[in-house]
Amino acid sequence: MKQLHGHPKSLCPIPTKYCGGCGHGVIHRIITELVDELAIREKTIITNPVGCAIWADLYFDFDSVQPAHGRTPAATTGIKRVLPDHVVICYQGDGDMAAIGTAEMIHAANRGESFTTIFVNNAIYGMTGGQMAPTTLVGQKATTAPQGRDPASGMGYPIRVSELLAGLEGSRYIARGAVNSPTHARKTKQYIRKALDAQIRGVGFTLVEILSPCPTNWGMDPIQAVTWLEEQMIPVFPLGEIKNTIPLGTQQRGNPGL
User: Fold this and answer.
1) More confident: 8 or 56
2) In 3D, which of 218, 121, 114, 199 has the Cα closest to residue 161?
């Protein structure tokens, strides 16, 4: 039976600080709906670092910890080990996770730490001024790549973080969704539900990457941004479940509320 939502109890009823068309607000809504549906509000802790995610603790009406930039997986590891009965969510952007905190995330995944990462990929540094990120597309312009990312000039290629982590034995569930359309948002919610359910069952490291619009730093209006994500980002970062080694018998049964 599908559940119709009013305002999620776990989402604070305050005005948003995010730019018009930003995907963070949609992602916050999805997370709080799931926290309510799974009845884990009193057991949930989210870690949100420097970047646009620094504001996340304003909106989540449950416990949060704000680690230093890039150190989120290390802090989350400590919290989960001290409070193994809690549901711990590591909320990171692409600059924080794929650049500044790459080592922390790779080793946390390799160890099979039992927390869930929500990895928001908008292909650019958001809060700090629109610099090129490890996920910036080839040819995409940024303040540090005004002519567009050019691998031939030493700028490298976009890093597919989910595929990278999927190759590690400690990771159990890796998926990639998007929030540029209602259809993609509903599917993304299914991925996050499965990741949280696996954590509750003690399966191991889980991560859901979410492609998210950033109209301000892309130099677009919100409508252009959702179209650009569909036409440019998804071909580079394909959507779907990338790895699922959740043992039989611990798989989630049913999808209430979807």
Assistant:
1) 8
2) 121
Q: Around Cβ 253, how many Cβ atoms within 10 Å? A: 6
DSSP string covering 136-187: PPBT--BTTBTT-B-GGGTT-----HHHHHHTSTTEEEEEEEE-SSHHHHHH
CA gap 34, 80 in Å, rounded: 19
Task: Name the residue ranges covered by the structural domains of the chain.
Answer: 24-244
Q: What is the pLDDT of residues 179-227, one digit of tens each?
A: 999 999 999 999 999 999 999 999 999 999 999 999 999 999 999 999 9
Q: Strand pairing partners for 240?
A: 176
- Specify the residue for token string 């009193």: 42
At residue 242, φ and ψ (nearest 5 deg) are -95, -35
**Contacting residues for 46 by C-beta, under 8 A, at least 6 apart:** 31, 56, 57, 60, 62, 63, 64, 65, 88, 89, 90, 91
Q: Which fold has domain 24-244?
A: Rossmann fold (3.40.50)
Tell the burial category of 76 from Cβ atoms under 10 Å away from its Cβ (0-12, 13-18, 19+). Answer: buried
Both tokens assigned to 62: 């449950």
CB 208 within 8 A of CB 188: yes
- CB distance 198 to 204 below 8 Å: yes
